[in-house]
Amino acid sequence: MTAALWRSIANARTWAAPCPGSRRTGQFVCPCHASAFERDGELINAPAPRPLDRFAVTIVDGVVLVDTGNAIQRDHTSTDDLVYA
């Protein structure tokens, strides 16, 4: 499964970074405010107000294409956000 997330945190002007051990947990953490996110962008620790934004992903002939021209805001995450190869 594939998801493309924008690491910019809403209203914080900071970036979420892979946390130590992220290969195992898949989490991202804001180094300034300690907001934490699951690998699908779901917010698991405030103060961020919502999940990480995502970008549309398509797979054409085995090539992953990410539309970075339009970030998609979400108030929750969904399995509909994922693309399966």
Distinctive features:
1 helix, mainly beta, three-stranded antiparallel beta sheet, 85 residues
CATH topology, anyone?
Rieske Iron-sulfur Protein
Helix/strand/pairing category: mainly beta
What is the succession of H and E elements? EEHEEEEE
> How many DSSP-defined strands?
7
Q: How would a textbook summarize the main sheet?
A: 4 strands, antiparallel
Mean pLDDT: 83
Radius of gyration: 13 Å
The first-level CATH class name: Mainly Beta
CATH architecture: 3-layer Sandwich
Write the SSE topology.
Elements: E1 4-5, E2 17-18, H1 22-25, E3 28-29, E4 36-37, E5 43-45, E6 54-60, E7 63-72
Antiparallel strand pairs: 1-6, 2-3, 3-4, 4-5, 6-7
Characterise this structure:
By secondary structure, the protein is mostly beta strands. It has a single domain, classed as 3-layer Sandwich (Rieske Iron-sulfur Protein), CATH 2.102.10.10. Helices cover 5% and strands 33% of the residues. The chain contains 1 helix and 7 strands, in the order ββαβββββ. The chain has a 4-stranded antiparallel β-sheet, with no helix packed on it. A 3-stranded antiparallel β-sheet has the order 1-6-7, with no helix packed on it. It is globular, with a radius of gyration of 13 Å. The mean pLDDT is 83.
Short summary:
The protein has 85 residues and is mostly beta strands. Helices cover 5% and strands 33% of the residues. The protein has one domain (4-81): Rieske [2Fe-2S] iron-sulphur domain (Rieske Iron-sulfur Protein), CATH 2.102.10.
